[in-house]
Amino acid sequence: MMGKLQKVALKPVNVALGFAAGAAAGFLFKEAWKLVAGDDDAPDAGDPDRGWGEILVAAALQGVIFSVVKAAVHRGGAITTQKLTGTWPD
To answer: What keywords is this UniProt entry annotated with (predicted)?
Structure first.
């Protein structure tokens, strides 16, 4: 069980990691979309020139990438916290 001070100290680190993970996931999605569709711009759900299939494939790909990056950052942060503090974070 982590102490209150450790939790407070780790909060800004977790927020920064969350922002970095979001930026990395966004970049990875754009690069993956270029490979999958050969198009520099991923479709937006409100774009009238894009079809349902393209919109849904892009959303699914984006969801997978964001979920994997989020899980990897969360797990890595927990492991690092355990190594630094000797305690698994709550």
So the answer is: Membrane, Transmembrane, Transmembrane helix
